Amino acid sequence: MKPLFQLSTRKYDKEIPLVKKAMEELEGNCKVKDGYEIKEPFAKAGWAFFNLELSADMASVIENSGMMENAGGFSISEQLKNFLGHFFESKGSNVRITKIDY
Predict the structure, then answer these.
(1) Which long-range contacts does 79-85 make (Cβ < 8 Å, 24+ apart)?
(2) CA angle, 11 then 87 then 79, to 5°
(3) Residue ranges of the domains in the chain?
(4) In the chain, at which end, N or C, are there fewer CB atoms within 10 A of the end residue's CB?
(5) Given this model, what pLDDT does residue 61 score?
(6) Whole-number Å distance between alpha carbons of 48 and 40
(7) Pairs from 41-45 (Cβ < 8 Å, separation ≥ 24)
């Protein structure tokens, strides 16, 4: 199963380039091609929501490489969500991230 997360922001036009750049960098760090897919956004109550799906290969590399070492959480999915949230934040993005499916 591919990990699926929902990202949300009030400034989609500003955030989407930051998210894409961060994911391209993470893809390079993981040495994975086609490691993620960003789905079409939808708006609700002034927020833009869009889904981020990681490939099984990319999720496996992140889990097994030690990248999530300092990402708190009890489950792997929670640690992966926290890792991605901190990674986006370190790249200047202020998106909120929630786990949809893992």
Answers:
(1) 80/3, 81/5, 84/5, 84/52
(2) 115
(3) 4-101
(4) N
(5) 95
(6) 10
(7) 41/12, 41/16
